[in-house]
Specification:
7 helices, 8 strands, single chain, Rossmann fold, alpha/beta, binds NADP nicotinamide-adenine-dinucleotide phosphate
């Protein structure tokens, strides 16, 4: 079992800190070969030190999720160097602190905020999936986990952080669409980590990054009988 897990290389985007760092650590501790996507060479150096300090074997790879045009060739290089990616965790995201904070109004949202948020939170995962999932389909195995948020849930949609909400709803849609097109043992799901104490979640959040990582780590290792095209919180399906 450990050997077959080793053959499944995982890529976690935005893994130099926060929930992504924890997802990478937990997958590595589960015996999976893990690549930590980081934005720059500098981040790769500090991430390497942080993973060593956490006593996990995780290799940082430079992958700027906001560089849609450059990513396909960067991902091809990563697969050439490290092997085919069987598990993709789209974790990297931004939440631009708009005036008004959590009460920020849609009517005050700037085009720049919406465009920047869309580029990182939607276009980025769309490109990683479009680039990597065909290989998973060809090889007959793949797990994709899109880190979404209850902020993107249409069933309880409200105001506040409009650009971020729109981006997570769109990521949920991408999850459904890609899952509908991925046959066989390729499973594509989204999850909400809950409110987590990270730079994004802030110091008052109720969960540790390790707790916030748990559902994603479970989805990344689903058996062939597991679900696809779902949205999960605490390992249970939730409304879109
Ligand atoms: N924290 C919460 O309460 C919460 C709640 C719901 C959902 N989420 C979701 O959980 C995920 C992780 O959030 P978090 O709280 O861990 O956030 P975080 O602490 O702000 O960390 C975000 C990570 O994404 C990376 N990133 C951002 N833009 C990138 C880019 N262009 N290329 C590569 N990496 C990039 C950051 O790298 P840099 O260090 O280079 O900036 C960082 O590693 C996100 O998808 C977020 O939306 C979080």
């Amino acid at each position: 079992m450990a050997d077959s897990k080793r053959m499944k290389t995982a890529l976690v985007t935005g893994a130099n800190r926060g929930i992504g760092f924890e997802i990478a650590c937990q997958l590595a501790r589960a015996g999976i070969k893990v690549l930590a996507g980081v934005r720059t060479n500098e981040r790769a150096l500090t991430a390497r030190e942080a993973f060593a300090k956490a006593s996990v074997a995780v290799d940082p790879v430079v992958l700027d999720i906001a560089d849609a045009a450059g990513m396909p060739s960067v991902l091809a290089d990563i697969e050439r160097l490290h092997g085919a990616i069987g598990i993709l965790v789209n974790n990297a995201a931004i939440l631009i602190d708009e005036p008004g904070g959590f009460d920020a109004s849609f009517f005050d949202m700037t085009d720049e905020t919406l465009q920047r948020t869309w580029t990182t939170n939607v276009l980025g995962p769309a490109v990683t999936m479009r680039t990597l999932v065909p290989g998973m389909i060809e090889r007959g195995y793949g797990r994709v986990v899109n880190i979404s948020s209850i902020a993107g849930q249409l069933s309880s949609m409200s105001s506040g952080f409009p650009a971020y909400r729109v981006s997570k709803t769109a990521l949920n849609a991408l999850t459904r669409i890609a899952a509908a097109e991925a046959p066989g043992d390729v499973k594509i799901n989204a999850c909400s980590p809950g409110w987590v104490r990270t730079d994004m979640g802030g110091p008052c959040a109720e969960r540790t990054p390790a707790q916030g990582a748990e559902t994603a780590v479970w989805l990344a290792q689903l058996p062939a009988s597991g679900p696809t095209g779902g949205f999960f919180h605490d390992k249970k399906p939730i409304d879109w």
